[in-house]
């Protein structure tokens, strides 16, 4: 019984150390992604749903303003699903999940409840509290799009997206 208690204590200490260092977050994100790295990287940069063509634009940012912690705020993602020439796309599609891929590391999240300006040919969504990856690098961004009419899911990718720094 003493051996089991010691093992449990060591395991709890390890989890506390990993959570405190942020390693646990990245480990969980990499191992529990709902879509494989291979499938994310193979996602198309344009999709067609019911005759409309959709593309993805992003703005990724880490905030280092003086009011931020010394190591900056976590990654923020604004995504724009665009269908040029279309109207009211938010009544036909929705974006429900976000993946940001840095090499073999994956940040996966649902979008926040807040929305950007969803008008006409553009659907905007926001993801917050991502990893603290360094600004100035490029990553791949993938979103899950749902056709609200059929319920079918699509992946849509924007490659080589720059992580900006505010200061």
Give a written overview of the molecule.
By secondary structure, this protein is an alpha+beta fold. The protein has two domains: 32 residues, no CATH class; 131 residues, Immunoglobulin-like, CATH 2.60.40. The protein is 20% helix and 41% strand. The chain has three helices and eight strands, in the order H-H-H-E-E-E-E-E-E-E-E. Strands 1, 2, 3, 4, 5, 6, 7 and 8 form an eight-stranded mixed sheet that branches. Strand 1 and strand 2 form a beta hairpin. The chain is globular and about 45 Å long.
Number of domains: 2
Give the helices and strands as they follow along the chain.
HHHEEEEEEEE
By CATH reckoning, the class of the largest domain would read Mainly Beta
Shape from CA axes? globular
- The separation of the N and C termini measures 54 Å
Contiguous low-pLDDT stretches (5 residues minimum) are 13-31
What is the second-level CATH architecture of the largest domain? Sandwich
What is the name of the CATH topology of the largest domain? Immunoglobulin-like
Largest sheet: 8 strands, mixed
Q: Tell me the β content.
A: 35-45%
Q: Structural class, please?
A: alpha+beta
Mean of residue pLDDT values = 84
Number of helices: 3
The value of Rg in angstroms is 19 Å
Percent of residues in helices comes to 10-25%
- How many E strands? 8
Defining traits:
8 strands, 8-stranded mixed beta sheet, 2 domains
Secondary-structure blueprint:
Elements: H1 2-21, H2 23-31, H3 37-41, E1 47-49, E2 52-63, E3 76-82, E4 93-102, E5 105-110, E6 122-127, E7 138-147, E8 153-166
